Amino acid sequence: MTKSNPSVLIVGSMAFDDLELPTESARDVIGGSATYAALATCLFAPVRVVAVVGTDFPESAVTALSDRGVDTSGIERAEGKTFRWAGRYAKNLASRTTLDTQLNVFADFRPKLPESYRSSDFLLLGNIHPSLQLEVLDNVPNPRFVAADTMNFWIERERPLLVELLRRIDSLVINDEELRELGEDHNIRRAAARVRALGPKRLIVKRGEYGAMLFDDHGIFFAPAYPLEEEIDPTGAGDTFAGALVGFLAQQTEIDDSSVRRGLMVAATVASFCVEGVGTQRVATLTRADVAARLDTLRTLVHFGG
Amino acid sequence: MTKSNPSVLIVGSMAFDDLELPTESARDVIGGSATYAALATCLFAPVRVVAVVGTDFPESAVTALSDRGVDTSGIERAEGKTFRWAGRYAKNLASRTTLDTQLNVFADFRPKLPESYRSSDFLLLGNIHPSLQLEVLDNVPNPRFVAADTMNFWIERERPLLVELLRRIDSLVINDEELRELGEDHNIRRAAARVRALGPKRLIVKRGEYGAMLFDDHGIFFAPAYPLEEEIDPTGAGDTFAGALVGFLAQQTEIDDSSVRRGLMVAATVASFCVEGVGTQRVATLTRADVAARLDTLRTLVHFGG
Fold first, then answer.
1. CB 3.0–4.6 Å: which of A233, B144, B190, B262 could bond B121 by disulfide?
2. Which chain B residues touch A230 with a CB distance below 8 Å?
3. What confidence score (pLDDT) does residue B20 get?
4. Which chain A residues are closer than 8 Å to B211 by Cβ?
5. Which of A82, A84, A71 is nearest to A109 (CA)?
6. Do A209 and B188 touch (CB under 8 A)?
């Protein structure tokens, strides 16, 4: 039986980002995959977060989440410094260079689930060590839907664990370069078939300014990216996309080819707002009405007669 | 009054291409923008070609066009060698390096229009010197629709002539890098607005494996690229796209936002076949039935409920 108000559990990072953007530089920007994803999910469904921050992390940043209705009781505050990432974006924002990564308290992160989180219906396993993603799965006995992200680092170093994870999730949400590496084929379609053969019912490929693709039993689907006139900061757009998708699906009666396709359009819309502000600036104040208005425009971008 | 069977005039290059593809190397491949475009246009509408070849160009390659119904009386055979391009593709086919360009007879190309061509209703001005594109326009007094292509070389060296051309065409068909350079903005949407302000009612942006975008008075439209399982050779796919678009439009009662959007979907479909063979191999044998079947699939790729 489907619960009337299913909750989404997000596990991921919370971080300080130092960003060198074409338009400005910004230090100590509150970021991390769990932060972006939670701010997107909370637009649609109740959401709880498991993450770790250091003693230097401002309480106001946690309050910013709880003010949006996010259950933050699973955010652990550990002795030490918060995970920090520094990056520089190319002028066109299409590529970025990591300048520095300080794992700090994130290096010893072991997700600790409050008892109440174990009944979560929807899981979004952010990009953390696959052994930790598996551990979270072990602690949520009966999820209705599980989505996971990963990255080249784990694909190269922890393939067996990742393969184990893939057998246990509904949807893998990765970018096109990660897909090519995981599927060991430069051809997106063949790589997608190989990855789906490892387990996930759905593969969702994030392609930045080119939108997103879905591969499922019904075929392939494209959601375009909303073309922005002002692109400020793409940091977290992929996590925002994943968070919005899972939040949207948690609202749906059925998770099927139709709702997932609509979910991709919604997720592309929400992610576009993320790029309009530095860090979580824009996503943190987003409303359902903002999303609905832009979604209407996005629909017209793929509409043709005949 | 609209004629019942409007003809498309294509002006462009005919060439030998030496291709270093990931899967094979091929020399003396028959190519050139006019060749690819004509083979695509002829699927939909009567087509005539203005181009120049050298004495080394095989008559069989011209016959291959006329066998498909293409009027080849405007193909001039000049003393000397045919235009030759040599290129090497990256393993993923997403980028290529020009190894050699020999303009040969193309260096002195002056489009000579047979008298019967002057009444052409639809024009596709391939990527040649903008002064020559303008000269062709001067010789076709009353076209119903004019599309043109160009490249970075002319954008950098012949901007004033190009700006003059833009005032006189309906649609500019270029790739995203050319758009950024011509619009002097890395943001696609702003660059598109600047280019359209120079004249063309429609701007069509080719984005390779990411499909194509249209900017017109009705907004923006995305046509996805058909995701191929076997990508062999992208040479000429952009010209095939443009040729199919103009050919499709020549068949339509109205050229409006709806028919142009449908045209983009058709053009994306036809262009996908081009990539499945070396050179014109696949496009040269394509049928309307092949196109219709794949177009049905392409439509599903952007279809969502609700």
1. B144
2. 187
3. 97
4. 210, 222
5. A82
6. yes
A3 pLDDT higher than 70: no
Q: Do B302 and A92 touch (CB under 8 A)?
A: no
Compute the distance between CA of residue A171 and CA of residue B168 in angstroms, rounded to an integer: 50
Give the other-Cβ count within 10 Å of B100's Cβ.
9
DSSP assignment of B124-152: EE-SS-HHHHHHHHHH-S--SEEEE---H
Reported as a pLDDT band with limits 50, 70 and 90, residue B4 is: low
Domain-embedded: residue B193? yes
Q: Which domain holds residue B65?
A: 8-300
- A253-290: buried (b, 16+ CB within 10 Å) or exposed (e) per residue? eebebebbbbbbbbbbbbbbbbbbbbbbbbbbebeeee
| pLDDT tens track for B103-135 | 999 999 999 999 999 999 999 999 999 999 999
- B37: in domain: yes
Q: What is the number of domains present in chain B?
A: 1
Query: Are the C-beta atoms of B279 and B233 separated by less than 8 Å?
Result: yes
Confidence category of residue B1, pLDDT binned at 50, 70, 90: very low
In a domain, B3, yes or no: no
Average pLDDT on A164-192 reads 97
**CB nearest to B262's CB, from A93, A229, A304:** A304
- Which ipTM did the prediction report? 0.91
Which of the residue ranges A238-247, B88-97, B218-227 would you say has the lowest mean pLDDT? B88-97
B157 to B127, B131, B163, B168: CA distances (angstroms) = 14, 12, 12, 19
CA A217 to chain centre: 22
| Helices assigned H by DSSP within A31-72 | 33-41, 59-66
pLDDT in tens, B241-270: 999 999 999 999 999 999 999 999 999 999
Q: B243: domain CATH number?
A: 3.40.1190.20
* Per-residue exposure over A145-161, b if at least 16 CB sit within 10 Å of its own CB, e if not: bbbbbbeeebbeebeeb
How high is the pLDDT of residue B3? 55
Contact B171, B147 (CB under 8 A): yes
Q: Does a structural domain hold residue B47?
A: yes
In 3D, which of B112, B20, B111, B14 has the Cα closest to residue B57? B14
Question: What is the mean pLDDT of the segment spanning A279-300?
Answer: 97
Task: Tell me how crowded residue A29 is: count the other CB atoms within 10 A of its CB.
Answer: 19
